[in-house]
Specification:
- By secondary structure, this protein is an alpha+beta fold.
- About 30% of the residues lie in helices and about 25% in strands.
- The protein has one domain (about 25-115): Yope Regulator, Chain: A, CATH 3.30.1460.
Length: about 120
Protein backbone atom coordinates (compact mmCIF):
# COMPACT_ATOMS: atom_id res chain seq x y z
CA UNK A 1 0.00 0.00 0.00
CA UNK A 2 2.00 3.01 -1.24
CA UNK A 3 1.23 6.60 -0.33
CA UNK A 4 2.21 9.68 -2.25
CA UNK A 5 1.95 12.91 -0.33
CA UNK A 6 3.50 16.33 -0.43
CA UNK A 7 6.04 15.77 2.35
CA UNK A 8 9.09 13.80 1.12
CA UNK A 9 10.21 12.91 4.67
CA UNK A 10 6.82 11.48 5.58
CA UNK A 11 6.71 9.65 2.24
CA UNK A 12 10.12 8.07 3.01
CA UNK A 13 8.93 7.00 6.45
CA UNK A 14 5.78 5.44 5.01
CA UNK A 15 7.86 3.69 2.39
CA UNK A 16 10.15 2.13 4.98
CA UNK A 17 7.14 0.95 6.99
CA UNK A 18 5.51 -0.50 3.88
CA UNK A 19 8.75 -2.33 3.00
CA UNK A 20 9.19 -3.80 6.47
CA UNK A 21 5.54 -4.84 6.68
CA UNK A 22 5.12 -6.10 3.10
CA UNK A 23 4.00 -9.60 4.07
CA UNK A 24 2.40 -8.76 7.42
CA UNK A 25 -1.19 -7.81 8.28
CA UNK A 26 -1.66 -4.26 9.48
CA UNK A 27 -4.08 -1.38 9.30
CA UNK A 28 -3.37 2.29 8.90
CA UNK A 29 -5.43 4.96 10.67
CA UNK A 30 -4.93 8.63 11.35
CA UNK A 31 -4.30 9.61 14.98
CA UNK A 32 -2.17 12.35 16.56
CA UNK A 33 -2.55 14.23 13.27
CA UNK A 34 -0.67 11.61 11.26
CA UNK A 35 -0.62 8.02 10.06
CA UNK A 36 -0.58 5.29 12.69
CA UNK A 37 -0.07 1.58 12.11
CA UNK A 38 -2.00 -1.11 13.99
CA UNK A 39 -1.76 -4.87 14.30
CA UNK A 40 -5.24 -5.86 15.33
CA UNK A 41 -6.34 -3.13 17.73
CA UNK A 42 -2.82 -2.38 18.99
CA UNK A 43 -0.72 0.56 17.87
CA UNK A 44 2.85 -0.41 16.97
CA UNK A 45 4.14 2.42 14.76
CA UNK A 46 3.31 6.01 13.92
CA UNK A 47 4.68 9.03 12.12
CA UNK A 48 5.07 11.89 14.54
CA UNK A 49 4.87 15.47 13.31
CA UNK A 50 5.46 14.31 9.70
CA UNK A 51 9.14 13.69 10.27
CA UNK A 52 9.81 11.10 12.97
CA UNK A 53 9.05 7.42 13.04
CA UNK A 54 7.71 6.21 16.37
CA UNK A 55 7.58 2.60 17.50
CA UNK A 56 5.54 1.20 20.37
CA UNK A 57 6.61 -2.02 22.04
CA UNK A 58 4.67 -4.22 24.44
CA UNK A 59 7.99 -5.37 25.93
CA UNK A 60 9.78 -2.59 27.82
CA UNK A 61 13.08 -4.41 27.28
CA UNK A 62 12.86 -3.88 23.53
CA UNK A 63 12.12 -0.19 23.96
CA UNK A 64 15.15 0.08 26.26
CA UNK A 65 17.36 -1.85 23.83
CA UNK A 66 16.38 0.44 20.96
CA UNK A 67 17.06 3.50 23.11
CA UNK A 68 20.73 2.47 23.27
CA UNK A 69 21.12 3.33 19.57
CA UNK A 70 22.33 6.87 18.81
CA UNK A 71 19.55 9.41 18.32
CA UNK A 72 16.69 7.24 19.59
CA UNK A 73 14.57 9.20 22.05
CA UNK A 74 11.60 8.53 24.31
CA UNK A 75 8.27 9.74 22.96
CA UNK A 76 6.52 12.57 24.76
CA UNK A 77 3.06 12.90 23.19
CA UNK A 78 2.21 15.46 25.85
CA UNK A 79 5.22 16.97 27.65
CA UNK A 80 3.16 17.64 30.78
CA UNK A 81 2.50 13.92 31.27
CA UNK A 82 5.99 12.56 30.56
CA UNK A 83 7.23 9.97 28.11
CA UNK A 84 5.39 6.77 27.32
CA UNK A 85 7.63 4.00 28.67
CA UNK A 86 7.27 1.63 25.72
CA UNK A 87 7.39 4.17 22.88
CA UNK A 88 10.42 5.62 21.11
CA UNK A 89 11.18 8.02 18.29
CA UNK A 90 13.67 6.73 15.75
CA UNK A 91 16.23 9.12 14.21
CA UNK A 92 16.32 9.79 10.47
CA UNK A 93 19.80 8.22 10.30
CA UNK A 94 18.30 4.81 11.11
CA UNK A 95 16.17 5.01 7.96
CA UNK A 96 19.31 4.39 5.93
CA UNK A 97 19.87 0.99 7.56
CA UNK A 98 16.85 -0.80 6.14
CA UNK A 99 17.71 -4.14 7.70
CA UNK A 100 18.02 -2.82 11.26
CA UNK A 101 14.95 -0.62 10.87
CA UNK A 102 12.89 -3.51 9.47
CA UNK A 103 13.96 -5.67 12.42
CA UNK A 104 12.62 -3.16 14.96
CA UNK A 105 9.42 -2.45 13.01
CA UNK A 106 8.71 -6.17 12.70
CA UNK A 107 9.46 -6.71 16.39
CA UNK A 108 6.98 -4.00 17.41
CA UNK A 109 4.43 -5.51 15.00
CA UNK A 110 4.90 -9.05 16.38
CA UNK A 111 4.37 -7.82 19.91
CA UNK A 112 1.25 -5.90 18.89
CA UNK A 113 -0.21 -9.00 17.18
CA UNK A 114 0.13 -11.02 20.38
CA UNK A 115 -0.91 -8.21 22.76
CA UNK A 116 -3.93 -8.99 24.92
CA UNK A 117 -7.15 -7.32 23.85
CA UNK A 118 -7.98 -4.11 25.64
CA UNK A 119 -11.41 -3.43 27.01
CA UNK A 120 -13.23 -0.58 25.27
CA UNK A 121 -13.00 2.87 26.85
CA UNK A 122 -16.09 4.49 28.21
Amino acid sequence: MRWQGVNPVEDALRGRLDEALAELPYARRTLFGGPCFFAGATLFAFIWEEERLGLVFQDAGDAEALRTLPGVEPWFPDRSRGALPHAVLVPMALLEDREVLAHWIQRAHAQAITAPSKSPRR
